[in-house]
Design brief:
By secondary structure, the chain is an alpha/beta fold. The protein has helices at residues 3-54, 60-73, 82-95, 98-106, 150-159, 163-176, 180-188, 191-195, 204-209, 234-243, 245-252, 299-314, 334-342, 360-379, and strands at residues 201-202, 220-222, 256-267, 270-280, 285-291, 324-329, 348-354.
């Protein structure tokens, strides 16, 4: 192929990519508008039913009758059964609370999304008798709620213990584009506590090269899906993770792309193999993961240093950032890790894996510490 033809093809690819970006931009906008309308529907329906229930005009039997009525009016319409109508009530009651609106204001989250409120002609809405009109003004839907779907919100408000935790999962679901089942696992495995832990075991070099790394990498991985026995070796762990790669990537974070198992690197005259090699889309770098089934030992870092040097010299592309190493082990003495990593010149971190969930009291302490951290930073 001549150089001129090759240049023409590259230019054509750029033009095609531009058309693709137009399609994606408008499709994304359309989906966002549909989502906003769905949320506004849930918000207004939830508000109306909530007020009727609180005023004792309606009982639970009336909500069931309403669900039946809506189904008769349009049998093909989905999402307005009794259970979902009560979810709409909770959606309105929870997020119209003063405590939630105060938090949104303190975090300055109100301008994240500008809601395209639809202009509805008055004759499109059935007019109620004066006695049945709701006398409370309609509180607008907080903009922050529009960044994810109603089904995701149902997962969040049914599982989260605080407004801070709820806001985190709204942002996390939007950033990671999580489906409802993916969000559910993130909440169950306590991503909130593990991702926002400010005492992660990271080398100074890793923090220097990636300043926002605290909010990207987790320091604990919950591998309950492996059903590991108390005594297991690296082969069992490795084989289990390969068999459940989808669950493992979801646990690591959605931006991880699996490259290869036992990835071979040439060091001098010998071939060494990295247990698991990934690529991180957001960080734009290779991520080497070494699996250990014994507690952290200092010599693990020397081996990882060698792997990262080999990756950066022979595998990393010019447009990619320095490779990152993660040593995944069942537990680690934090003082030993700090001493070892303080002299390491490689961007490395130590993470722990758990075959069971973190105890709830540990989770609660993490939530309290994060709330204190937020309050301190917002008042300075």
């Amino acid at each position: 192929m001549s150089k001129a033809v090759s240049t023409d093809l590259i230019e054509l690819e750029k033009q095609f990519a531009y058309v693709d970006s137009i399609i994606n931009r408008h499709r994304t906008t359309a989906i966002a508008k549909v989502n906003v309308e769905s949320l506004l529907t849930a918000w207004e329906v939830g508000r109306y039913i909530s007020i009727q229930l609180k005023s004792s005009r309606w009982g639970s039997k009336v909500v069931s009758d309403l669900a039946d009525y809506l189904k008769r009016q349009n049998p093909k319409r989905r999402g307005f059964g009794k259970r979902n109508l009560y979810n709409m009530v909770k959606f309105y009651d929870i997020y119209s609370a003063v405590e939630f609106t105060d938090l949104v204001q303190r975090l300055k989250l109100g301008e994240i999304v500008q809601l395209p409120i639809a202009q509805i002609e008055s004759d499109e809405i059935v007019q109620l008798p004066i006695a049945q009109l709701v006398d409370q003004p309609l509180m607008p839907l907080p903009n922050i709620l529009a960044i994810t779907t109603f089904t995701n919100h149902v997962e969040i408000f049914n599982r989260c213990k605080s407004f801070e935790e709820s806001v985190f999962y709204m942002l996390y679901a939007a950033h990671q584009r999580l489906k409802t089942e993916e969000l559910r696992r993130s909440i169950v495995t306590q991503t909130y506590a593990t991702l926002l832990d400010k005492d992660k075991m990271m080398s100074p070099n890793l923090r220097e090269k990636y300043p926002n790394i605290d909010f990207v990498l987790k320091d604990k991985a919950i591998v309950d899906f492996l059903d590991l026995p108390q005594k297991h070796n690296e082969h069992h762990l490795h084989k289990g993770l390969l068999a459940h790669m989808k669950e493992f990537i979801l646990e690591l974070g959605k931006d991880f792309l699996f490259v290869e198992s036992e990835f071979a690197v040439q060091v001098g005259g010998s071939t060494r193999r990295i247990d698991l090699l990934f690529y991180h889309r957001a960080l734009q770098c290779l991520v080497a993961i070494e699996l250990k089934t014994i507690d952290f030992e200092p010599e693990f870092v020397g081996k990882m240093d060698m792997y990262l040097e080999a990756l950066d010299r022979d595998v990393k592309r010019d447009n990619e950032n320095p490779s990152i190493g993660i040593i995944l082990c069942p537990s680690a003495d934090r003082s030993m890790v700090e001493y070892t990593l303080s002299r390491s010149l490689s961007p490395t971190m130590v993470a722990e894996y758990r075959s069971k969930l973190i105890p709830q009291e540990v989770m609660q302490r993490s939530l309290d510490e994060y709330c204190s951290f937020l309050n301190k930073n917002l008042t300075e």
